[in-house]
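User: Modeling request: complex.
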Amino acid sequence: MVWLQPTVLIGLIALAIPIAIHLLRRPHARRMVVPTVRFIQASDRSAVRLRRISDPLLLLIRAAIIASAVLALARPLWLTNTRIAAWEGRTARAVIVDSSESATPAANRDVIDVELSGARPGRSLETPDLTLGIRRAAAWLAGAPPARREIVLVSDFQRGSIDERSLANVPKGIGIRFVRMKDGVDPPAMKGTAVLDGDGSFTVLPAIEGSGTRVEYSRRSIQSSGLRIFAPSGEEDISSLRRIVATAGAYAPDAEQPMTIQFDAAASTSATGLTAGDWTFGAAQRLLRATSHWRIPIQAFPSQGSLVVHAQVDPKSLAAARVVQAALDSRVPFERFQEGEPERIDDATLAGWSREPAAPDATQWRQTDESDGRWMWTAALLLLALESYLRRSPVREHREVVNHAA
Amino acid sequence: MTPDALVQLHDLELVARVTVEGALSGLHRSPFHGYSAEFSQYRHYRAGDDLKYIDWKLFARTDRIYTKQFRETTNVRLQILLDASASMAFEGDGSVSKLAYARVLAGALAHLITKQGDAPGLTVYDEQVRTYIGSRPGRSHLRGVLTALANTRAHGSTAAAPAVRRAVDLLRSRALIVVISDLYDDDGAFELELKRAARMGHDVSVFHVLSREELDWPFNVDLEVEDSETGRRVLMSSSQADGYRARMNRFVAGWRDRCAAENILYALARTDVDPGRVLREHLLQRSVRTNR
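Assistant: Request completed. Predicted assembly structure:
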């Protein structure tokens, strides 16, 4: 037998309560020294003996009631073969559902339901990041009740979405299974992104051809119409800033995503007036995240389709150039490129990564939500009834009266 | 004076005197008078002899009238046997212990005897004789007796029979023997010794000292009672009080009857009654017997 809450056993100290009460109450009579007890007959002493036999019995029962309650609260668990066999026969399953742009969880709901219905317990985790999902699933399974443990990944398994390093963090006893989603979607159309390069710019043009990805570079002049910079010190500083940013490298400005950067007083770092779904929303969030540790007060807010950035920094400083660089880079989310990946991890690789869940190990009983405390509670209730009966027993009182009368 | 007040006085001589004066007030003569003569012989009755000295039992047996002749002795000797066992320490409701009460009675008797020129003595015993003072007259001797009484403390169990036998054996002639005790002596030998002393011609009296609590058992609660001498403990419920009182009454009545049968004067001395009154009743009882 093992205890799921062994610290509760300290409550057995409470056994001292009935013992103390018994000791304090045991001399029912006041003690008095008298010249002689010769006039108290022997028959009276039988009543005394009766009481002294009964009291320890009551004490024993009361102590047993408290002990039973404490033991029940300590959640005893008998590790019987039947119970261990039951644990081995069930599976705790975390189903990780890929919710990235390329995946179609809604179309695979029946697959997910089948996986969850056979699990005890089961849980689904929808995430666009399978590596993160695996980490969360492993953490959840670590606290799951005793059972075989398994992670099931339901995804289209784009190349790069998962690798051996992602799976290395999964504890050995946990099984891993891969279920490929039935229908993937075509990769979104890719659009080349202009990158500043010295005094000009080039355009990245990805070409998707089966299992390979080809990138073409083409040079073109800088599109300055998408970026407006205001500095109180004048145009010379602004030109200087543009040169520095172009030399350092950044995504080129785009007239479709216009941006205004103003170097003046900013009250504090904030983003206001943003609407979710608009490109300015993601851009402002990424900008503030990227600059959060620079200790520069920056405000970002949309204005007539343009992202306006106020930064409290000297336009002559390098920090100003970094703000411009971060603002330009913030418009392009990396996820866009990931979801454009057309290649899938092949079945043979996935089969190689798969493994069967191991039988529950000897330490898993600690996580169980079962307990045999109910038997202790039953014993406590029965003892309570017995104690009540003995305390009020008319037979006992009658015997005492008879003995006294004798 | 109440028993409490008397016992509070540390001067036992004064207490004895007060008690004696209270006891004697209204009595015409000392009840111990006449016991200073010892029986010597019989002689034929002659006209003019005091009828009091005719031996009627002898007349019944022989059809002849004989008069008892007495030899005058110097003193009446009084030997007080004081029980100082642990049971005598009982105070009941916390006022007067039985031993303190017994000391007052013994002191008063010693004072009374000394006052009429006779000789008091004292034997203090528990399971053995603790103090023995022979009977001698005189005030200085009385002080010795009173001092011994004042220094008496209650402890030990009771074995009265050897003490009585020894006191009687040490008496060279007839004497007054006064036993002051609660008579909690399981040994029937004590009673036999008293009878023996009485049959030897000694004038034996018993003051049965008991407290109100022992006699009436006024406790209406359960008690765990402990025997002061044996240490034995018994649980006693309030419902047993009636049985206790009945047994105690039988105990007292038994002693009274047995003493009467052996011509031993018996006096129940309750510690809540003025010892002077107890002494006075005893003296009256003695006078009645003497005049019979």
